[in-house]
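Two quick folds needed for the group meeting slides. Do the first one here.
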Amino acid sequence: MPDTTFSDQQLIDTFLPQILENEAKGVLQDLLAQPILAMQFLFFSEEATQKAIKHVAGIFDECYRSGHLKVAMSHENACLYGYALLFVHPDPNVPRYCHKIFVFPEFRGHGIGSQILSALIEDPRDTSLLCGYDLIDFYENAGLEQKGAFTAPGKQQGFALTQGMYADLVVMGTRGANVAAGVFMLNDDDVKALLAYA
């Protein structure tokens, strides 16, 4: 069974560019799926797309370098199988937010995602995540509790363009976690910066 690493800094740094680029591509796909943004992103040139990927990866990298983003990886023999991204608030009373658990397609179906999730749940620090209502049973069976519906910040807080990305989600968390966990979202200024590459 592969190892799940939280603390092997050299190994994490080796895979970090690949992880952040993969996440940036995922964010762009999520933005493309938003009706308000789809047409604007749909006709991006390859050059504009690469610039946007680099921009979003840079946001993640800045969070990582400042200590607000932590990475857990599933790996074996220098092969990366999957990872989790956790946003950590400076206040230790605020639960970590698991932004994503991702397993590369060729390694899916072998329990790697469940192994990463178990490592997160077994950690003494509280952890929360967002999921669709269809995944509540899965996460409850894994040991998380439903904490309530997620309410995304709105237009007044500068998140009008990404509202649809966070609709109909529920907060799941470990026993001590609460709804106050910070969630990573691109604000309107971030999205406008990406659109400027077109």
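Then this one, please, same format:
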Amino acid sequence: MAGHKPPFEDLYDIWGYGLNRPGIKKVMSAMIFASDTLNRFPKGTRRLFSRSYKVGDVVEAIEAKHPMIRNCFHRGLGHDAQFIESQIMVGVLLTLKDQGIMALPIHDAVMVPAYAVSTAKEIMLDTFHRYAHVEGTVTVEA
């Protein structure tokens, strides 16, 4: 949505918050859905951080890690992002079906037979580019 290629590294690995990855992931998601800057931890996330951490510091750390999408936070874009992600996944699945490849969707991934891995990766990259208008990344796990 910001017009930049997604980075390959772990989006939630933020210096100084190494043990707080689950909390970082939830706060970052809340930042994408929120219409205003977070002034408190989202429901259920306070327990994922040490008491000494303040939500403003966590938000600043996330924004510092992701300067290219900083302008997408706190704008209520979460549902728009989910819709694009769903279009990509449906496009991937329909293309795989058209090519006779059975695929099982798992969140933002697909499980395909071993013989179809390279084809599925190519389809995922092509479909991502068609909907997101930037180059994507796909990792393969055996």
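Slide caption for protein two: The two ends are 30 Å apart (CA to CA).
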